[in-house]
Amino acid sequence: MTASIDRMNPHTLPDAGKIGYSQISIASPGRLAFVSGQVAWHPDGAATPTSLADQTDIVARNLQRALDALQASTGDIVQMRICVTDLDNKSQGVAMTPIFRFLAGAKPGLTGVGVAALAGPDLEIEVEMIVQLAA
Q1: Run means of pLDDT, 10 residues per run, the chain, 135 residues
Q2: pTM of the full predicted structure?
Q3: Is the separation of the CB atoms in 127 and 80 below 8 Å?
Q4: Given 3.40.50.2300, 3.30.1330.40, 2.60.120.40, 3.40.50.300, which CATH number is that of 5-132?
Q5: What is the rounded CA–CA span in Å between residue 30 and residue 6?
Q6: Do residues 92 and 112 make contact, with C-beta atoms less than 8 angstroms apart?
Q7: Which residue in 105, 135, 99 sits closest to 1, CA to CA?
């Protein structure tokens, strides 16, 4: 399903489109799915990797699995919230590379948040999504 989501980067705000997201996303009336924060946990219970890059790859796969379960695509994502422990320019760059690869050109609203900790002591990133569904 390709949702009817209008994306805006008004000239009165910084051009987020150059970076890969939209300042404003307008979703048409309809059903929304609120996808809980996905972390670097494998469905089979395998160990969580220690690097942020490897954790982000697993998070992106989990996000794709959630979209598949919803019969949705990255173009249907209205909003993403990305939480990273010890967020700085370096960790932001490491995390956003796999996230933008996952988005494959879709430009939902994005919010990045630096946090002190996540649900487990070994976790470095968590991403949640709001997805527009077919009516």
Answers
A1: 76 86 85 94 93 97 96 96 95 94 95 95 96 87
A2: 0.88
A3: yes
A4: 3.30.1330.40
A5: 14
A6: yes
A7: 135
